[in-house]
Design a protein that fits this description.
- This protein is an alpha/beta fold and about 350 residues long.
- The chain has 2 domains: about 10-130, Rossmann fold; about 130-340, no CATH class.
- The protein is about 35% helix and about 20% strand.
- It has 12 helices and 17 strands.
- It has helices at about 10-30, 60-70, 85-90, 105-120, 145-155, 170-175, 180-185, 220-225, 270-280, 285-300, 320-325, 330-340, and strands at about 30-35, 45-50, 75-80, 95-100, 125-130, 130-135, 160-165, 190, 195-200, 205, 210-215, 230-235, 240-245, 250, 255, 260-265, 315.
- It has a 9-stranded mixed sheet. A two-stranded antiparallel sheet has the order 8-17.
- Helix 2 links the parallel strand 2 and strand 3.
- The chain is globular and about 50 Å long.
């Protein structure tokens, strides 16, 4: 039985009005720092939109990943960085850089919706965080343009993606990694402590019920915290889909594809311990940064945390995530991918 993600079942019109009220201070706060404000259609390829704050360790690798994937323009919204993030982002010709100093705690959803509405309308939109790197099954043989063609042919309007936490052998190695080198050290993953639940996002139509929502992973193993790992980063923003109205993980009123993608998640890169302490002090995440309180309790005992477990594996390809059931691909998509080889 499909359950509602939230009890809020009020008419869409009311929810749009509520969202417009939330977005009004966002529009007033936006400052344009660099890059074009009008983005060409790019032959149907998605525009990438992301929030960032103190993300200098990620930017070069982030841009390189999405360029290699085939994306031609990236929109970054800075939320008050005090490191070199802004300087690094302004050097890229294919990046539009904005800034808003509104508190993330109160505006994380309307800030994301602003990016979609102003840069992602009537096109494929890839909404991610700066530490998330999108990929999908058989991407070695199915270029992004062909992947989107499959979605369009099947009339899918959104893709669910599972966040895969990637980590180094020891936490301190993530701190020592500089620039894009964190991807070399953060090559391990662990799906031994994964919980799968039936898909339950309100107002979406699921193409294949075998696709599941996923919780837990290495954060459950190390910190006894089971995060919700399922998001909807890729979607066709047609004006009908509701992006991030009730939760910044989800879009609503979408037809969700019969293949799941992956978000390689580099949460532990850089000075994770310092970021945890900042989040606990600011209380700017869910339930007064409860998740970060759990991290902090463990890190106070050991800042040289052993992360690699006996059940951990080294990531080589998104395809290896299919065998474990972390990712899902229907027989129809598998046949499509085989034809592209």
């Amino acid at each position: 039985m499909v359950r509602s993600l939230h009890p809020d079942c009020r008419p869409v019109l009311w929810r749009r009005l509520r969202a417009a009220f939330e977005e009004w201070p966002v529009r007033r706060s936006i400052e344009h720092l660099a890059g074009p404000l009008a983005i060409s259609p790019d032959g149907g390829l998605p525009v990438v939109v992301a929030l960032m704050r103190n993300a200098e360790i990620y930017i070069e690798a982030f841009l390189a990943h999405y360029r290699a994937l085939g994306c031609r323009h990236i929109v970054l919204l800075d939320n008050g960085s005090t490191d070199q993030s802004v300087d690094l982002a302004t050097k890229a010709a294919d990046v539009t850089l904005l800034r808003s100093l509104l508190p993330y705690k109160d505006f994380k959803r309307p800030l994301r919706r602003y990016l979609v509405q102003n840069f992602g309308r009537h096109r494929w939109c890839l909404s991610v965080d700066i530490d998330e790197f999108f990929d999908y099954p058989f991407s070695d043989s199915v270029p992004l343009r062909e992947f989107l063609r499959y979605l369009e042919t099947q009339r899918f309007t959104a893709v669910a993606a599972q966040m895969l936490d990637l980590f180094p052998e020891h936490l301190q190695q993530g701190h020592d990694a500089a620039g894009g080198t964190f991807r070399e050290q953060h090559r391990y993953y662990d799906v031994a402590n994964i919980e799968r639940r039936d898909y339950f996002v309100h107002n979406n139509r699921l193409a294949d019920p075998r696709l599941k929502m996923i919780f837990g992973g290495i954060r459950k193993t190390l910190f006894d915290f089971a995060p919700w790992l399922t998001k909807h980063p890729l979607f066709w923003s047609d004006g009908k889909i509701l992006p991030f109205y009730n939760d910044f993980h989800c879009v609503e009123r979408a037809c969700v594809a019969d293949v799941s993608a992956v978000l390689y998640h580099y949460k532990f890169a850089g000075d994770f311990t310092a970021r945890v302490a900042e989040a606990v002090q600011a209380g700017n995440y869910y339930r007064n940064s409860l998740e970060y309180q759990r991290y902090n309790a463990v890190l106070e005992q050991s800042k040289t945390l052993q992360m690699r477990q006996p059940t951990s594996e080294e990531l080589r390809s998104p395809n290896q995530l299919l065998a474990s059931g972390f990712l899902f691909a229907s027989e129809n998509y598998a046949r499509f991918a085989a034809q592209q080889r």
